[in-house]
Amino acid sequence: MSEMDTILVEHDGPVTIVSINRPERKNAVDGATARRLFDAFRAFDADPESSVAVFTGTGGAFCAGADLKAVAIGDREKKRELGGHDSIAPMGPSRLRLSKPVIAAVEGHAVAGGMELALWADMRVVGEGATFGIFCRRFGVPLIDLGTIRLPRLIGHSRAMDLILTGRPVDAKEAFEIGIANRLVPNGEARTHAIALAHDLAKFPQACLRNDKRSALRQWDLEEEDAINDEMQGGLGVIASGETLEGAKRFASGTGRHGSFK
């Protein structure tokens, strides 16, 4: 396998599928792979033909975290610098705040840094045999891909502290019950269901969808009054684009009523 083969990028109409392809390492991420993941998602966000990404792994695993074998021998490409939303993180894209949705399709293990990558996605479609967990707890490897930030926000502080401090495994059923997983699907079907969901999202008016995603993420940075103003300013931009008027006309003609999304 060449180095470039460690990340696979496929296109299915408006859906881009990004796969970690290191099955011999349970898709653990070394420095070079982190860089290629970062570049792949930056390219997706800049691609005018792509609306939604599906993020997954090959060989029955999502990602086992950082490649500690590479770390043990001195991974010169591993990045550990401070940085903001546009900078590369140790696992690659986990600091990026993309304008478009990312759906993680999780089978097998999504642990340690791999769990942090799954938390970076906007939604998670999870196979019934999947396992999450801060497994790096046992090896003294810190959470530095926003795991200590995103996990409490996603499932609440108390539950997050349980997982962060104990490093215990979390099966798919519990992950769904506490809010890590958005969809629970039969084993082996996470990718298929995630791609179908991505196509559903791609059918919506995209300026509005992307602004609402942006506002939902941005509000964490702001005081409440500033968040209210930011939401309104973004919404006014969508309205000014004409997308809202077009949707209102579709509604007036009878399209999309009574819960129909067609």
Summarize the structure.
The protein has 262 residues and is of the alpha/beta class.
Describe the structure.
- There is one protein chain.
- By secondary structure, this protein is an alpha/beta fold.
- It has two domains: 7-203, 2-enoyl-CoA Hydratase, Chain A, domain 1 (Alpha-Beta Complex); 206-253, Orthogonal Bundle (Helix Hairpins), CATH 1.10.287.
- It is 41% helix and 15% strand.
- The protein is built from ten helices and nine strands.
- Strands 1-2-3-4-6-9 form a six-stranded mixed sheet, with helices on both faces.
- α1 links the parallel β2 (15-20) and β3 (52-57).
- It is globular.
Strand order of the largest sheet: 1-2-3-4-6-9
CATH names the topology of the largest domain as 2-enoyl-CoA Hydratase, Chain A, domain 1
Structural class: alpha/beta
The domain count comes to: 2
Annotated CATH homologous superfamily of the largest domain? 2-enoyl-CoA Hydratase, Chain A, domain 1
User: Helix segment count?
Assistant: 10
GO molecular function: catalytic activity
Protein name: Enoyl-CoA hydratase
Organism: Afipia clevelandensis ATCC 49720
Family: Belongs to the enoyl-CoA hydratase/isomerase family.
SSE layout and pairings?
Blueprint: E1 7-12, E2 15-20, H1 31-46, E3 52-57, H2 68-72, E4 102-106, E5 109-111, H3 113-120, E6 123-127, E7 131-133, H4 147-155, H5 157-166, E8 170-171, H6 172-178, E9 183-185, H7 190-202, H8 206-218, H9 224-240, H10 243-252
Parallel strand pairs: 2-3, 3-4, 4-6, 5-7, 6-9
Antiparallel strand pairs: 1-2, 7-8
Helix pairs in contact: 3-4, 4-5, 8-9
